[in-house]
Request: fold
Amino acid sequence: MNQTLHPLPCARLQERAFWAQGISQTLTSEYGKSTTDLPGDLQHYFVSKDLSSVQISQTDMNRLWHAAATLAKDECFGLRMGQTYCSNTLKVLGLAAVSSATIGEAVQRVIRFFSVFSTQVQLYSVEDDQHMTVYFQPRGTPHPMHMEALLSHCQHIWRALDPANSSMVLETRLTADHDKTRSACENVFGKRIRPGSKRIAVKLNRHMMDSPLPAADAFLVKRLDSTLEDMLSAVPNIDFAEQVKQRIRVLVSEREVSEDLVATPFNMSPRHLRRKLSETQTTYEKLLDEVRMELAIRLIEDGKLNLGRIAFELGFLDPSSFTRAFRRWTGMSPTAFRGEVRQTGGVGG
Reply:
């Protein structure tokens, strides 16, 4: 098996429920739509009570984005949500940024604490003499609209750091082409946009990083840092589990997977591996099951291998074992799933 197969949305990666509330508020205020038209099993995310400690899986988050955008009939729903809704968490992060001594310190503070705002990306920066480029690295497989909403939300912070719009942001890179919606993007980000990029990123003017901020407040920023550190410690750390899962993907593709082989590159025993995974609320068996499910779905959609070969590639002893596992994962047989893929115009018809 030598194909590059990307992971499905990560059910273990949890996002805070204020994102659902922001989607709900945007649907109502901007489009006059009701959340009662969204999937019934997601309705509990729209109740009026305090949901600050409630988490939404990336899988459900993606379903919610898809349903909301379909209801709004707007390809730029994520961009508009980022402009019309500002959570309290973003306000705290923004306040910490503008309280920094310089623009450069503010940007690094945003990068450092961004996970308190969204767990679905990791920010990092690359610098040269002219530019500082902040990359938005996806974790798992977040919905494209979630990524665009994050970029749009960040505009609140960039504007606060550069209220005179004196070219701090040199370029905003979007992965979507936006041929028909370029004007909507320019309304959010200005003229300096590059659709169709390989990665989502914001290019900043390196020469402005040393510029002092007029609202700098060392007393306040020290206490905000403490608050954000506390919030960051409460964010579930799934990085180790995802690293293990990637190792399992490699071994499954080589048709040689075992707990010993998974543990080896981490310099730990299988027992230690189990203990570390339990800290992330998962197990080796669950991760292996997730990888097999992802690869089974991708390979059936790809359409190049028959079902017997797929069962062999995934390490099942016989096709019937694969069929039972696939029913447990999806509620249908591999044959029925392949038929649906062909009916809906999937690859390999």
User: Anything to note?
Assistant: Strands lie at 14-16, 55-57, 121-127, 131-138, 169-173, 193-194, 201-205.
